Amino acid sequence: MDESGSEVDTDLCGSLTGLAGDLRAADTAVALIGAGLSAASGIPTFRGEDGVWGEVFDPAAFHRSRFERDPAGFWRDRLDLYDHMEPTDGAEPNPAHYALAELVDDGVLDAVITQNTDGLHSAAGTGNVIELHGSNARVVCDRCESTRKAGPVRRRARGGELPPTCPCGGIYKPDVVLFGELLPAVAHSRAERLAAESDVFLVAGSSLTVDPAASLPARIGTGTLAICNLERTRYSDTAAYDIRADVTTVLPALVRLL
Ligand code: NAD
User: Which domain holds residue 240?
Assistant: First the structure.
């Protein structure tokens, strides 16, 4: 039991105390976030238990080549994906999002690098977020590259405008990185630099299988790698802390310790 009354087992307590000490001593500390962070907000992950890839959706349907070949079919499948992924009454940040926001506010974390596209870090008021995979809250025109809010464009698509088009005649695409696309260059190079500079690199809620984001832990030099994920990852053997526990328990507990 910790001071707030939550159940935290002894091994976990030891790891959290060690990690809190390392975070306190760090000049640069950064978090890399994955879909597991939003699971408690009702947004399913792609992999791991109950992941939607394979069983429910085929990742090939969301490849860049599908968007180019069959933009109407791509959008139809994308609307189905939103229906499946997004709670009908809207997703809210959970205690793990708020804990991260607090860690940035307090200067414990210098930045949050996120693979998530759900906008919940912003909703939690987190500063200095690097969106590696873009945001589902926006769409971008494939011709003039202008962006706009996704809501009205999605409504047009649901009303039958498939694919939805920009006034310039181009086709709107969700402003996220599809399979077969490169990461946004500025965000990617910032993330790589931060990883290389970090004294502590904390991964939370990521299967660490989607490259190039999943290769960021390999960029850290002498820094400490800490992972908090329900399942094993490819860095589990080399991480200084490999915490197999729920992020909504671990991150708020870290905030309390710090
Ligand atoms: P992933 O789906 O590959 O893996 C998520 C991991 O989180 C799994 O290993 C799972 O065991 C773990 N997990 C689930 N609930 C957890 C919890 N409560 N506490 C701790 N761990 C938990 O996610 P990824 O590594 O981010 O990569 C997937 C890709 O999917 C990314 O490109 C991302 O853009 C996209 N994605 C985003 C969202 C979102 O924005 N919320 C949701 C699904 C997928």
Answer: 1-43+93-133+182-258
Smallest CA-to-CA distance from 211 within 132, 139, 110 is with 132
Indicate the number of domains in the chain: 2
Q: Which of 160, 176, 192 is the last residue of a domain?
A: 176
**Dist. CA 43 → ligand 1 center (Å):** 9
CA of 141 to the centre of ligand 1 (A): 27
CATH of the domain at 159: 3.30.1600.10
- Convert the pLDDT of each residue in 149-163 to its tens digit: 999 999 999 999 999
> What is the per-residue pLDDT across 54-73, written as a single tens digit (0 to 9) for each?
777 888 999 999 999 999 99
**pTM for this predicted structure:** 0.93
